[in-house]
Design goal:
- The chain is an all-alpha fold.
- The chain folds into three domains: 9-112, Four Helix Bundle (Hemerythrin (Met), subunit A), CATH 1.20.120; 118-197, no CATH class; 218-272, Arc Repressor Mutant, subunit A.
- It is built from 14 helices and no strands.
- The protein is elongated.
Amino acid sequence: MAKIKKEAFPVSNIKIIEMRKYSSEELIKIYKETNNSDVLNVIVKRFEKLAYSTVKGFRNSTIEREDLLQLAFTGLLVAINRFDAGKGNKFSTFAFYCIKGEILHHLRDCGLIKYPRWVWKLNKLINDFIVKFEEKNNRYPTKEEISLGANISLDGVDEILKVREAAFYNLSLNRDKNQKNSVNNNDVYNRSLVKSRDYRSFELVIEDRILLWDAIDKLSGLNKKILIFNYFLGYSQVEIGEKEGISQKSVSRHLRTAIGELREHMLLKQDN
């Protein structure tokens, strides 16, 4: 890529048609140096087909197409502002993942996707690693890099990506607007393949974490809430009592019951 100097490119004196001879990476560098809206419009126009094609994979009856398009173009603008042209990477690949990510984050946050807690937890673990990796390297990590960074076996990464894609793209099916999407566990993934890559001190291996998360999901309402508040969020029994409008003794009683139920569920799962 040719080095572009701001003073060598007086944007105000150049017609939009002349901008088209520059690569997308060059235009993004020019835009960041000049903050010129005409340059930005040329870039957006160049990648609008990518935004539309990405949206096609998510069309469904639960969210309007125009809303998806708005998310897609938001993702495109995020990509333009985050992209580092100096690293020599292709903008089109980076833009695709930003557009897709913007849509997926919205679908997850608005509750359109429902799947087991362990999938959600490991998906978040992988997403957090990918975000940090992209910020540092300005590219999407390989599966091997995800496996190393998240400490999940390669087969396990494949299974998480498989169930994640199945859940997300299941939204393309026509469903009743009030019906949330779920994953058919038997058809989508093999949970036995999801394992830690190596042992790390003071960390539960992935297999044990999945077992724990599954057991927590089986707890009853208040017992489950109190256990999470106390053991995972660090609230004291007095603080939990104030939040729930019950006495500290009642919190202690619910906590003992929750731990007993948790133990039973985990032992039953291990026996199976």
